[in-house]
Amino acid sequence: MQDRATQSKSTTKLSEQLTGNTFRPSDFMRARHPELFSDSCVSSQPSLTKEVFEYHLELLTSRKEETIFEHFCRRLAEKELCPNLAPQTGPTGGGDSKCDAETYPVAQQIALRWYEGQSSGESLERWAFAFSAKQEWRSKVRSDVKGIAETGRSYTLIYFITSRYAKDKTRAALEDELTRAYGIKVRILDRSWILKCVFEHNRLELAVETLNLDETNVKSGKKIGPRDARNTDKLREVEERIQDTERYSGVEYQLAEDCLRAALLARALELPRVEIDGRFERADKIARGVGHRQQQLRVVYNRAWTAYWWFEDIGEFSRLYGQVELLASTSGEAIDLELLGNLWTVLHTSHSAGTLDDAAADLKRRTATLVTALEQSANDTSRPKDTLNKHCF
Which residues does 318 contact at the CB level (< 8 Å), separation at least 6? Predict the structure, then answer.
């Protein structure tokens, strides 16, 4: 329980949020429910800046660290694109396989439980990867794609990751050219993508480990709070259960519940958004596979709630509202409509505050849909208790 000083501080902060002009949903929620957020304290921030990291990437070839860069790219691709990557074997420069890494087949049952990467498509498709730190990246991507295509393997996608900057127009034109020439989709990821992954997706420790950076310049001073320590243990236990492919045989509903629990624990720990969103996406896919409407609704509802109160992403909140509306308005259950009503309140407030325009809010139609669903529920004589919802709006 909070002591009086902490309660007073939280109340003061909440008042400032409500009366000031700098309202932030995450600050408001943190002041009202601090138990839903991280209690760790950061005393110092990493001193490694984007500029310093860029300089390190720029000098990779002069330090003859091409092999180190390839290792970094593979590890980064495992986190951001697909976990099932096998490195090339044999001599450097692609070895006998003509690529630096490629995906290996994984059972769909396993791939469904991933929360990192773009999708589960790579579990069935064959993707090839080429990494390069050369300054003249255009000729390198042409030669690498040509070599990979000429192997005759059934690749459906080729990723080329370069440590150099690539102009959007040049990159897009080259992707289209090579895709047409070889009949395999080509994606080029440059230094901008690397910087985004490292600094926005919190992959700094991975970069330090694989690029042999000075750890004294990148580690932050962080004191782990007791609540975070407990939640970290819980998250580890839940993830271990989820990865056990034999545990949920015949009880996939529980698998979806544990995936949702993992997402909520990651949110409470305030892990990078890419990890939280990935876990919610995993829970959503599994819940849709189970086909239990109320479970699907709870997953999407929590995603929408998180998008607004944790990430302050109004656009994503509005998009997810549509999914909740579809599931809740046709269920006829009062408890489902209560969840939709919660989101409607946030939607209405955001529209009134001007943070969501008329087109995105679609408030008139969404209000009518909710009212109609509430009236139908209230008029259902087989559920007398639902009449309590009749005058909610």
Answer: 347, 356, 360, 361, 362
Cβ count within 10 A of residue 152: 6
* pTM for the whole structure: 0.81
Q: Which fold has domain 225-389?
A: 1.25.40
> For residue range 71-112, what is the model confidence (pLDDT) as tens digits?
999 999 999 998 888 886 555 444 445 899 999 888 778 888
* Sign of the Cα pseudo-torsion (351, 356, 357, 358, in order): negative
Which residues of the chain form CATH 3.40.1350?
50-216
Percentages (nearest 5) of helix, strand, coil residues in the chain: 60, 10, 30
| CATH fold group of domain 50-216 | Trna Endonuclease; Chain: A, domain 1 (3.40.1350)
The two three-digit tokens of residue 298, written as one number: 């709870």
In this structure, the number of other CB atoms found within 10 A of the CB of residue 161 comes to 28
Q: Could you give the CA distance from residue 98 to residue 335 in angstroms, rounded to a whole number?
A: 57
